[in-house]
Write a structure and sequence with these properties.
With 110 residues, this protein is an all-alpha fold. The chain is built from 6 helices and no strands. The chain is elongated and about 50 Å long.
Amino acid sequence: MSPVLGWFGVAVTGPDTSANALFGALQVTAAREAGLSPDLLATADSSGGILGKMISPQNLTTACAAVGLAGREGVLLRKALPWSLGPAAGDMPDRGRPEHARPGLDAALT
């Protein structure tokens, strides 16, 4: 559950440090109650946060603005969401097959 909280926290807040501040005490308490290492749950939380980073609204806006695609954030979100959820859902796009090749950002968003 820790990676899911990290993913959600970063997707909503943007920075991993903000999500850690938001859920850090919860992770420590949950770890102690479950007899687990607080370090392990904090690490799992941060690992999940990394996957949430690619779909946070701040990052989508920054990425689109940086490459001249302002206003196309929704398109980028639809492209990034499967990559963000893929490992958790067991549905990671196959990067080894040519039909799933990722050309430049402009081509991917058209």
